[in-house]
Design brief:
CATH topology: TIM Barrel
Number of helices: 13
CATH architecture: Alpha-Beta Barrel
Number of domains: 1
């Protein structure tokens, strides 16, 4: 039985970007660059935005900075795409306050991670998420990232799904079998519940078993590629989708393991022309040298997709993969929403055939 009377604002589907955060030379938020970056992501075809995610380094930011980032993201988005805002704080009370603020800013929903540092049992996790859900003015997406916080078991998520305000899960375990168990346990009674994967190395396999999309850090670097994967899967072209998925895994592994997370992803965003600055985590002299080499390798991998010019120092890439991405790229002057594309085509058809309107 539901314990909350508020209604959901719509199922979250597609690729949401847990955006990186640009910092200036003094380590402060570079608000102008953040706004430019967010606008580029939207124009490049992402389905939604996810400020204050793990790749956005939210634990290294102050409460005021997290709120300012969310406000900027919502203001730049202007309703073009939904905003799923990370609202995880150190306790339920402060997380609820964050939910209230993000509702004021115009976010569609919030994502809540299980409390960090303390390892909690399932009853404590249920009580924690329930307290937030019954007091939040926004829909709540449960964020399961077992490598960094207490794992949330399937039965706990199923119980939470009985609350109207809990409308989805972001699962970053990368466990396809676990996603199957979640969908089997919840979807029959909650067809409106969103299942999002936070592990792009298995994006297509997750979509195959029924996931609705993903919150993927690589979409902040190659949004054209993750959008291509989602659209190509929806069209049923599994051969093209898997060809690109295999190459995305190479990039993902390099970004994830080439430096301490999420520094590799910061490097990747720089390769797309944004001034990201030095992160809040200090780097040793050796790490600074390694970072330069990582930049070179990452630029080669990104250029394989045809979204940046290929550096002369890189070996030859795959023209087939880059051609696939280019042909299917959303582009800056095309609508990022499939429904919008269809609507535009219908309007154009009716203008060409005005007689159809009276039939």
């Amino acid at each position: 039985m539901s314990t909350h009377l508020s209604h959901s604002t719509g199922k979250l589907t597609g690729i949401f970007t847990p955006n990186m955060v640009p910092l200036d030379e003094h380590g402060r938020l570079n608000e102008e660059e953040l706004a430019r970056y967010i606008d580029w992501l939207i124009r490049s075809g992402v389905h939604g935005l996810y400020p204050n995610g793990s790749s956005g380094e939210f634990p290294r930011l102050s409460v005021e900075e997290r709120r300012r980032i969310t406000r900027i993201v919502c203001e730049v988005a202007k309703g073009r795409v939904p905003v799923l805002a990370g609202a995880a704080e150190a306790n339920a009370r402060d997380s609820i306050k964050a939910c209230e603020k993000y509702a004021e800013y115009g976010a569609r929903a919030v994502a809540i991670i299980s409390p960090i540092f303390y390892r909690l049992g399932q009853e404590s996790l249920y009580a924690y998420f329930r307290e937030i859900a019954i007091n939040s003015p926004l829909d709540v997406t449960v964020y399961n990232i077992p490598m960094l916080s207490s794992p949330i078991e399937v039965e706990t998520v199923r119980r939470l799904a009985e609350l109207d305000r809990v409308t989805g899960i972001k699962d970053s375990s990368g466990d396809v079998g676990n996603m199957c168990r979640l969908i089997r346990a919840i979807r029959p009674s909650r067809p409106d519940f969103s299942f999002l994967t936070g592990w792009e190395a298995v994006l297509i396999p997750m979509l195959c078993v029924g996931a609705d999309g993903g919150t993927n850090a690589t979409s902040g670097i190659v949004p054209e590629v993750t959008r291509f994967l989602f659209d190509t899967f929806r069209r049923g072209d599994m051969t093209s989708a898997m060809d690109v998925q295999y190459r995305l895994v190479e990039l993902f592994d390099m970004l994830l393991h080439g430096a301490d997370f999420p520094e590799g992803f910061r490097v990747g965003v720089e390769m797309r022309g944004f001034k990201m600055g030095v992160g809040r985590q200090p780097l040793s002299e050796k790490q600074s040298l390694d970072r330069r080499e990582l930049s070179r390798m990452v630029s080669c991998l990104i250029s394989d997709f045809g979204v940046i010019e290929r550096p002369a120092t890189c070996p030859s890439g795959s023209a087939e993969i880059s051609d696939l991405i280019r042909k299917n790229s959303i582009g800056e002057n095309q609508p990022a929403n499939i429904a919008e594309t269809i609507a535009n085509e219908v309007v154009a058809y009716l203008k060409r055939n005005p007689g159809k309107l009276s039939r």
